[in-house]
Amino acid sequence: MGDDSEWLKLPIDQKCEHKLWKARLNGYEEALKIFQKIKDEKSPEWSKYLGLIKKFVTDSNAVVQLKGLEAALVYVENAHVAGKTTGEVVSGVVSKVFNQPKAKAKELGIEICLMYVEIEKGEAVQEELLKGLDNKNPKIVVACIETLRKALSEFGSKIILLKPIIKVLPKLFESREKAIRDEAKLIAVEIYRWIRDALRPPLQNINSVQLKELEEEWVRLPTGAPKPSRFLRSQQELEAKLEQQQSAGGDAEGGGDDSDEVPQIDAYELLEAVEILSKLPKDFYDKIEAKKWQERKEALEAVEVLVKNPKLEAGDYADLVKALKKVVGKDTNVMLVALAAKCLTGLAVGLRKKFGQYAGHVVPTILEKFKEKKPQVVQALQEAIDAIFLTTTLQNISEDVLAVMDNKNPTIKQQTSLFIARSFRHCTASTLPKSLLKPFCAALLKHINDSAPEVRDAAFEALGTALKVVGEKAVNPFLADVDKLKLDKIKECSEKVELVHGKKAGLAADKKEFKPVPGRTAASGAAGDKDMKDISAPKPGPLKKAPATKAGGPPKKGKPTAPGGTGSTGTKNKKGLETKEIVEPELSIEVCEEKASVVLPPTCIQVLDSSNWKERLACMEEFQKAVELMDRTEMPCQALVRMLAKKPGWKETNFQVMQMKLHIVALIAQKGNFSKTSAQIVLDGLVDKIGDVKCGNNAKEAMTAIAEACMLPWTAEQVMSMAFSQKNPKNQSETLNWLSNAIKEFGFSGLNVKAFISNVKTALAATNPAVRTSAITLLGVMYLYVGPSLRMFFEDEKPALLSQIDAEFEKMQGQSPPAPTRGISKHSTSGTDEGEDGDEPDDGGNDVVDLLPRTEISDKITSELVSKIGDKNWKIRKEGLDEVAGIINEAKFIQPNIGELPTALKGRLNDSNKILVQQTLNILQQLAIAMGPNIKQHVKNLGIPIITVLGDSKNNVRAAALATVNAWAEQTGMKEWLEGEDLSEELKKENPFLRQELLGWLAEKLPTLRSTPTDLILCVPHLYSCLEDRNGDVRKKAQDALPFFMMHLGYEKMAKATGKLKPTSKDQVLAMLEKAKANMPAKPAAPTKTTSKPMGGSAPAKFQPASAPAEDSVSSSAEPRPDPKKAKAPGVSSKAKSAQGKKVPSKTSLKEDEDKSGPIFIVVPNGKEQRMKDEKGLKVLKWNFTTPRDEYIEQLKTQMSSCVAKWLQDEMFHSDFQHHNKALAVMVDHLECEKEGVIGCLDLILKWLTLRFFDTNTSVLMKALEYLKLLFTLLREEEYHLTENEASSFIPYLILKVGEPKDVIRKDVRAILNRMCLVYPASKMFSFIMEGTKSKNSKQRAECLEELGCLVESYGMNVCQPTPGKALKEIAIHIGDRDNAVRNAALNTIVTVYNVHGDQVFKLIGNLSEKDMSMLEERIKRSAKRPSAAPVKQVEEKPQRTQSISSNSNMLRKGPAEDMSSKLNQARSMSGHPEAAQMVRREFQLDLDEIENDNGTVRCEMPELVQHKLDDIFEPVLIPEPKIRAVSPHFDDMHSNTASTINFIISQVASGDINTSIQALTQIDEVLRQEDKAEAMSGHIDQFLIATFMQLRLIYNTHMADEKLEKDEIIKLYSCIIGNMISLFQIESLAREASTGVLKDLMHGLITLMLDSRIEDLEEGQQVIRSVNLLVVKVLEKSDQTNILSALLVLLQDSLLATASSPKFSELVMKCLWRMVRLLPDTINSINLDRILLDIHIFMKVFPKEKLKQCKSEFPIRTLKTLLHTLCKLKGPKILDHLTMIDNKNESELEAHLCRMMKHSMDQTGSKSDKETEKGASRLDEKSSKAKVNDFLAEIFKKIGSKENTKEGLAELYEYKKKYSDADIEPFLKNSSQFFQSYVERGLRVIEMEREGKGRIPTSTGISPQMEVTCVPTPTSTVSSIGNTNGEEVGPSVYLERLKILRQRCGLDNAKDDRPPLTSLLSKPAVPTVASSTDMLHSKLSQLRESREQHQHSDLDSNQIHSSGTMTTSSSSTANIDDLKKRLERIKSSRK
Question: The pTM is what?
């Protein structure tokens, strides 16, 4: 026992793992005791055993295992952490316990499994048990089934999922093991207990004997609903409650609780879906079209077999349905019709909701086929249509059904009514709203009067069913005109009806005979109470003629047969009276006189037609008195008006009598029961008098009174038709005016828009302007109610008229329709008929769009059009789509039947051609607008495919798809989209674009819904997978959408849905759910009906009842709406609600007016501070978003509620922008008087304004900006400073608006930014604006850059954040922007900085690309040349800045800079919009091509010439005199040490003053000539060279262009510079100090100088050029060979890259390189070969061989090859060891090239002599081989032939001919047309003329004979640059060149132009300008050198050179200008 003692000492957990079984047994026993003792389920003790529990149950020793199982059971029951062990423990139990022979072990194992289920781990347990069913050991399988059965029996089918079990049942029944089969039988019985017959279909295929046994068992089961006997932990309280109930003996409630479980399982859900489309016979579609009916039958039978599968997999069944539909509709063989109907039934049953998208196509066909009499066909069709009905909604197919109701065939009518009856049975009060019931009832009412008895019976049954479903109160309004007999019949039918919903048991239905009706009605949105009022309150008299009215007008009929005994008899009688009057018969004149004589004084009747007007007047007075005293019931209205109409009637000539008459008509209409019959007697007369000056007003009053009595819609229709049937324009215009007013007074409900529109169109076409004006005013009023859709009807009017209409609409925008004041009949006592009015926004308000005429376009959608849309050729497809768009455009509003169009368009949504996809999307958008809410029925078959397009990879396609989906959803509401599995299927697709777009869309739409279909839960699993998507955007969108899903589904459902996730995912998702729970918004509550409609009229939305919850104002379903349907398009809905009950009691509105008197901002002490703390502490969301999400809006609303007046807050957060405008107006009014309040709420006000920046409405934006301007002015006066919090949550959003396309908005924003700098530090503003420059919006970038410039200008450099350097680098990046405006703005900003701070700018902006730098330097130079007298536009250009330059005066340059800067500031404002200034007008571009193409004739019509004062041109340009003082010769006194002295002198070298520069150069020359002193220059060489080449640039750009300067002085300066340099480069030690970058710039400067043609014109110019030649040779020989070689390579590369660079420049650089090549044999050892090869590598990378070959000249490639060849020859194979500095050798062909060379030269030995090298260089001019020449020429002619490169080709041909004068181009020309030949010849002539007259520059012998260079610039770059798209300017020489050519063509003399034309900088590689830089060189030029080391300057783009400076350059200019003046005179005279 010795070893026992060892393990006894171990702790328990170790014992449990011990290898000795005894130890483990002991461990398990002790663990069991401990487990039983621990009371706290969360005790840390439990966690110790977490990993051991699996071992407890899987112990290898049977005895020990039993104890382990006991311990495990206790652990699972009590430990909080036990759930984590579920998977491993249950799988252990299945594999190691269920196979044990001991029954005890098995029992414990089952208990453990059930305990896991109890602790909410049912799904994991079930998963393991189902895995166990596949085990080979039958014992294990039996135990698993038993466990599942027990779990189901105890916990019920809600916890244990039946679907997976049922799936495996058939397999278990087939097992060979009897034990398994028996256990399967037991579990089948248990399942049946829970779901009853739903289990039958899945088991229909098992062995018949087994099925029989099961049936027997099933029959024995008790019928009561089963209840779970054991509950989950979370349900334990429920268990306790149940026990109490049972002990009390009443289990009824429990039964009630769970009764919903029985129908929960649907057999369909338990089935596996079968895929049948692929199984269709291959030839099915051919066979179904076959001529033989037997073949068609075979095809249908094949389908029938397939569709017998009870559940079908979703797919594209469109073609199959189409084929079956064709058979049903067109097949002559009735047997096949029945068979096809059966197939459709099978499809509908198997697909369920997924079939819904095809329902619309099939329903009309089936209904029309009911004309067949054969019972089997009728039955098949009935089954089919009933099955199809279940896949869709009545709403979706209502249009089709109603259309068939009018069919003449009685069988069709009968069967349709029966179908409606059967459909109604499936409806409930909520799914059969009044809007749907109304058209059905109207149609059925026609049928109950049908001649065929079967039709009548069917209609009675349908109406009876409707009565049963929604109750009498809802149906009665529609049955008002039905007689008693028929009404009884309907009621009788209603009692027999059994509804599908929960009324299966006949007994129950009988008992509750009457209950369902009121109960159901009450449920339907309080319709109950309303209808009670309906009956008791008399009707106001909206009297309609016929019972079945148009969908437009509300069917407001009287109800003579009010049902039941409700309501007092008195009111009923009144109703009866009114009803009679509707159809009041027309009385004869005798009867009228008789009736009138009873109530009127006899004298009155006698003198009615007296010839004396006074008698008639007296008679009228009596008449009036009599009417005033008459009682309503006794007043014979028709008789009275007949009396008035009696001769002279309305032809009365005396206006006083007439006025009285009209007044009496008004009185009768007001006081009596005035009928339409009476109205018709008088209306004609009234219309006739409406235009009368004296009687017009009375006529209008009478009309208004009649409108009140007979309803406006009827009256208006009559009046309009009368007015327009006569010709008096005054009457017409006044009628229109009356109607405009009447609509405002009565509201818009029920008006017949169609009739009006045609009348208005007539009026708009009238010749009389007054009629047109009145018509436009009327349209304005209609616009208030109808909204923008009204405009569609007038789009074909003339533009002038349309603009007037638009202006009227614009006026109306922002106004809400006024509350109706009339039309609410005064006779009704309490509330009016709210039952109708209340729920009738479906009529008058039913989007007025519903009143608009809709066109039927299905006949235009022909099969040809459909096949076009599906054609293989995309062009034909496009044509088809164009046609469709045209059809829809033309029709404006269309009916929902669009034939085959949906399938055709659906195909185009996945077209390979994206343009067509976008076009299809546009058509679908049009379709949604055109079809309106009826588009609903196409959501499934067309809407969902649009969502698929959201997954497109192209941004613009996705945006179009989203816009389309939104357009659709606006019409349909969201319900249709969310129903069914379609949306979840889309979300399932793992396409990141689709997921993020779809989730974004749902996140936007879900919060606005009050309820969603249950199918939304199907999206949740996919939403969870999106939360863990690889794509960050998808995850973000999914997180955003999470709270909104939860808002509709609730946290519990969402949490439960995580059960199927992996444990890690589940934890993450649950954490997100918790977070979302905190942010979950409340559902938008349905507006309370009680307050919203006590008066039946309507009020504008501003009287929204205070009780309506706040969310309403945000959500799209904002307006308090009586019916819960949100399908209306928002644009219309708010207006269309018109008269449909929304009016708040007048008390409320009064009260609101009183409330508005107090302060609007309430000062809360420390409120703002607290809000800032909350934001810092992350208690609230930080105000930071790309677009404002709802949670931000909600948060702001909550924060505002304490400090903003309630009524103002309602306005601010209203969904309608007009209310925002009102809120802003109020805020402006209260700004001055509530300063303290405004400042106290400033953070909230600014946040709210940021929300307004995201609105699309311009008027709100303008108002908001207006308010901000006032606000910041106020803050400045109050000396308030914005806090960081306020600034950061406002400024970024304000800056967004600076990029608005509208100028006026941008100006306002800039003004606000300017004012903000007075309340917030400009330096902090700078950072925000800097952020704005990163925007994608180019306008915003440009404006922000301009603003930065203004800030620097006003506040100096200190404003730049974080440092001036970083800021300017950021700004300089934008010089290379794609957008011209941005480039200009960036350049202007840097120029502004330059103007304030001079050359320091260059140091700060760091390295720029050559192009950018050249643009900048050009712009700086240009700004310096601006005439100082520029008009100061600054005030308009941008808000004036308060200049505070003095604060940084220490940084300003002295001397001329000071007066320069003030002038530049003025000039700066001129550059606000440089694009405009630089555009050369087309007429003045002298474009040769354009003139060529003008058929050889010169246009006679000349452009208007601007009258320039040409004399000004001769005035010398004023350049401010330099004021820098000369250097004192005794500078040694001032500067103690040599270095600073030299620094100072060098800084003087770059001076703008020639004398200063010459003095400095002389001093340096002295130093350099004395050998002992020359060393002092060491260390300053780069500095000196930089100063020198800056001076060279200055001369080139400024001095040479300066007329006042003596050219001798320039020559002197040049001599000094060149002399100095030669001295320097003779001292080798100093020359070698020059660095690569500096040498590159120096060589650039020198070569540019050699090419300067202006130097030639000077006397000593030739000498200068010779000296430069000599200097270049010195530089090449004496500099550090590596540096100079590297510099030349970089310079060559840059010059080839620069488009504007002259080829001569590159040629000279190459000649320098050849010189270097010749020096190589001597210098090869001193060269750093690695660096040179790196440079060559970079060169070859930039210019691969192919690119070099494209160069116009072959020199560059020869030069490169020669250099490499020489290096290879000198170094041999070792050269390959020198590629160490190259990182990636594959980037260029260098290595390959060297290797080839090495191979080539392997057989040649020794290094060849220098002469050979020389030969190699001179070989460049040898001709290419013949073949090459041909290729080359072919290439050139190809270019000439192409449109784009024709000029380039001609130039190349010219070059080629010049080079090889003997070249024969004839063969190439002879094959071409005569035109082409003459074109080429002419082109060559033109180029020759362009280039003539440019001289040569003789070069000194210093550089080898080849260096004699002709300095002719290539014109190609010049000419092509004229059409410069960037809008930069072009120098004058180009225009002179063109002018010269044109002169020659026109035969004008050109003698004066023999010399070169106005020499301009254009043709030269211009050098970047650097003006005098005293400060800069002073402050360590060396820094600049370092910063420029890597980056070297190059030529300026020649196009950019500003012409203003060069206008007066060379001496030839005067002659040219004289010439120009003459020409101008000549042109003018020719024009006269």
Answer: 0.39
